[in-house]
Amino acid sequence: MATQHSRSAARLMMAPAVILLLGWMLVPLIMTLYFSFKKYLPLRGGDLGWVGFDNYARFVSSSSFWPSVQATLLIVGGVLLITLVLGVLLALLLDQPMWGQGVVRILFIAPFFIMPTVSALVWKNMFMDPVNGLFAHLWKAFGAQPVEWLSEASLPSIILIISWRWLPFATLILLTAIQSLDSEQLEAAEMDGASPLARFGHIILPHLSRAITVVLLIQTIFLLSVFAEIFVTTQGSFGTRTLTYLIYQRVLESQNVGLGSAGGVFAIILANIVAIFLMRIVGKNLDA
Amino acid sequence: MGQIQLNQVTKSFGNVNVIPPLDLTIEDGEFCVFVGPSGCGKSTLLRLIAGLEDVTSGTISIDDNDATEIPPAKRGLAMVFQSYALYPHMSVKKNIAFPLRMAKMDQAEQERRIEAAAKALNLTDYLDRRPGQLSGGQRQRVAIGRAIVREPSAFLFDEPLSNLDAALRVGMRLEISELHERLKTTMIYVTHDQVEAMTMADKIVVLRAGVIEQVGSPLELYHRPQNTFVAGFIGSPKMNLIEGKEAAKHKAHTIGIRPEHITVSAKRVKGAWPGVVGVSEHLGSDTIFHVHDTGLADVITVRSDGEVSYRHGDRIYLVPRMDVLHKFDANGQRIA
Amino acid sequence: MAREITQKRKIVNTLVAWTIGFLIFFPILWTVLTSFKTEAQAISDPPVFLFFDWTLENYAIVQERSDYARFLWNSVIIAVGSTVLGTIISVPAAWSMAFVPSKKTKDILLWMLSTKMLPAVGVLYPIYLIFIELGLLDTKVGLVAVMTLINLPIIVWMLYTYFREIPGEILEAARMDGATLRDEIIHVLTPMAIPGIASTVLLNIILAWNEAFWTLNLTAAKAAPLTAFIASYSSPEGLFYAKLSAASTMAIAPILILGWFSQKQLVRGLTFGAVK
């Protein structure tokens, strides 16, 4: 279908999107790199000259760096674990024959459409508030001492809030994948004497592997830059300061742009490592 | 008018040369069939004529005008695609009207042509339906309708019947032949099915790996295949090709004999080939025997009268008609 | 016998699935319910579930006090504006990639997607500076531009996967029928891809509506959308559960309905066609 004429038309029609994205990527990236080699304090003197790799060294050696990496990994890992395990189980459940499947699907997917600021606020105040939250009422009803969720169990609470938003996503993608499994394959396995558990392990799980990878990688991308949930709840205190949030604080709160930019470069590198894996997999699927 | 001339046309995709320099003339009003196994370049050739692909070198002229650089729409050709390529969001009527609309033809003329086409193709009752509501055969007719309203100088068909079931295919074959008789417009038809080629064509072009193996009328190809490839490709069941000693007797590298030119005898006859009956296919009018252990080839296929009946394992003798023997040299080319 | 077991299992499945569905949905339900309570009932101990005096006053108060309508309007402009703009830029690009693929097409697509993965925080300050320089800070135009760029890769990708399902022969047929490139895209491709385009548009409105990093950091008072409106309720002093709930309900209701409407396409779109 490709004649010379259509090929040059194609190039022309692709140009706006390509040029815009190229600008969007390169301009801020180069500026971030530039700032990361400068001592730059907009409110305290502005541009104070080149400092080489000083900012990088300071960012990595600061006492908040490693805890922030740890918090990031814990949040990403925890949410991934919860959403994938529960997601597979819920997808299997939803695949079973039942009444009102359409309605149940709607109930399941709903959290994904909720604004992160709203979900964080609702969880923080109406569920996790140690005085008036529903959890507090529930704990009291069983005679237990209400928990100060966001300070005593801050990380698990944040993970819960984020998982609530992403579980529906994982479940629905996995459900779609399960539904595309040829039922004759399962029947053949049954005829071959495979138990339900064996059918799950040998047929369903391998069939889901692509969907699981997709969920894993897409969620990782979004989770690495989780912001609103922390901004609204703990503001980074009680051990919930992620790398993203740390950089945010350096840039906007302490107005140390050089230091923050160096952190930004770290975050970009981290995201790119993940991105390379995702690209590989998505790229393979492009051929299929 | 619709004379199409290909002059030293080549086509390469990257480094892969799909069509080496090729010359071909299709006369005005001719029904020309490109036939060959899949991957032989027949569809590419059609798309070059259509203008959907650029030629790498060479020229294509339509009615003596150089059309090589003319975009597809301006070549005055209409095409019927394998998948029919109907516009699913338009009614049958709008589908047929689309090329007229693109040509900004006036409304009354559009109506007249659509009506005529619909009547000719038995689509009058379906004009308001969507393609999705039609059967395969009806969709095929809509695709043809969309082609004929333009009154093109030639029709291009790209394996148009391959998505239909066997019974419908025979019917549509007749309809397209009928259409050609009526319109007398040039038609170029691509297929991998030699039966379609034989039954429909005025002229068959047999292609292999982008190269024209032979051009001729169906009967020319049947009676005088120029090489072993054409010999094996045209005719069903396939011609028996025999090499070795038996061929040497006729001073050839390979001899060919069609299944219908062999008679079967239970008794030994002079010059007959002994063999053992394998599977026999009873078609009613004919019976096809697959004969083994002849020492000539793995299997010799024989078509005989439906009345003749041998069983699996029977010993028989095959009597070839020497007057219709085809002889080929070591390069597979016909000798005399 | 077999049928009886199936029937019993179906009942159990239904019960379990509905229970879990209810639990997952509960925070939303609870928010909506609370929005109809008085402030006293909202924090009553024990909590009241359904039997309270239903009232609409919270909605009235929220609208009156926080000028909800302005935030809503900003959200609509930013989400719809960026999606429409993004789609207009993406349709031709996706057409090119789907129907005139070259060796570079795959690389370009993957590169586009990779821009989506640049962590926003890493480039926050440069964008901030550019915005100040261009006078775009706290303007709807600025946010529409940023949202368009953020979602452009996703729009191109989704359209690309939908376009690829349209057989190229149909576009070739149009070309043979005398359609120009413009005719081809307007009369044939776009109408055929309407379902795909619609779900792309819906998903991107949802994503832009809920985006909370750029909207929080690049707006102040004038152009702030609902994400910022809600975030302003996070300060403890302004906290009233019933009003918070009413505000939340108002912020999520439009998008929740839109989301339910497009859930199937949404899942497929978000996997970039990798899971069908």
Output the keywords.
heterotrimer; B: 336 residues; alpha+beta; Rossmann fold; OB fold (Dihydrolipoamide Acetyltransferase, E2P); C: 276 residues; mainly alpha; MetI-like fold; 2 domains; 74% helix
What does this structure look like?
The complex is a heterotrimer of chains A (288), B (336) and C (276). Chain A is built from 13 helices and two strands, in the order H-E-E-H-H-H-H-H-H-H-H-H-H-H-H. In chain A, 75% of the residues lie in helices and 3% in strands. Chain A has a single domain, classed as MetI-like fold (Orthogonal Bundle), CATH 1.10.3720. The model of chain A has no long low-confidence stretch (mean pLDDT 83). The longest helix of chain A is centred in the N-terminal third of the chain and has 33 residues, at 4-36. In chain A, a hairpin with a 4-residue loop joins strand 1 and strand 2. Chain A has 288 residues and is mainly alpha-helical. Chain B has 336 residues and is of the alpha+beta class. Chain B folds into two domains: 4-232, P-loop containing nucleotide triphosphate hydrolases (Rossmann fold); 238-328, Beta Barrel (OB fold (Dihydrolipoamide Acetyltransferase, E2P)). Chain B has a six-stranded mixed beta sheet, with helices on both faces. By secondary structure, chain C is mostly helical. Chain C contains 13 helices and no strands. Chains in contact: A-B, A-C, B-C. At the A-B interface, loops of A face loops of B.
Instruction: Record the strand order, biggest sheet of chain B.
Output: 6-7-8-3-9-10
CATH architecture of the largest domain in chain B: 3-Layer(aba) Sandwich
Count of individual beta strands of chain B: 18
- Arithmetic mean of pLDDT of chain A: 83
CATH superfamily of the largest domain in chain B: P-loop containing nucleotide triphosphate hydrolases
Number of domains of chain A: 1
Name of the top-level CATH class of chain A: Mainly Alpha
Strand content of chain B: 25-35%
Shape of chain B: globular
Major sheet details of chain A: 2 strands, antiparallel
Oligomer: heterotrimer
Q: Which SSEs are present, and which pair or pack?
A:
The complex is a heterotrimer of chains A (288), B (336) and C (276).
Chain A: H1 4-36, E1 38-41, E2 46-50, H2 54-61, H3 65-95, H4 101-109, H5 116-127, H6 134-141, H7 149-152, H8 154-179, H9 183-191, H10 196-224, H11 228-232, H12 243-253, H13 257-287
Antiparallel strand pairs in A: 1-2
Helix pairs in contact in A: 1-13, 2-13, 3-8, 3-10, 3-12, 8-10, 9-10, 10-13, 12-13
Chain B: E1 4-13, E2 16-26, E3 31-35, H1 42-50, E4 57-62, E5 65-66, E6 77-80, H2 92-102, H3 107-120, H4 136-148, E7 154-158, H5 166-183, E8 186-191, H6 194-200, E9 203-208, E10 211-216, H7 218-223, H8 228-233, E11 240-243, H9 245-249, E12 254-257, E13 262-265, E14 273-282, E15 286-292, E16 300-305, E17 315-320, E18 326-328
Parallel strand pairs in B: 3-8, 3-9, 6-7, 7-8
Antiparallel strand pairs in B: 1-2, 1-4, 4-5, 9-10, 11-12, 12-18, 13-17, 14-15, 14-17, 15-16
Helix pairs in contact in B: 2-4
Chain C: H1 2-34, H2 39-42, H3 57-66, H4 68-99, H5 105-115, H6 124-134, H7 140-164, H8 168-176, H9 181-210, H10 214-218, H11 226-231, H12 241-261, H13 263-270
Helix pairs in contact in C: 1-12, 3-12, 4-7, 4-9, 5-7, 7-9, 8-9
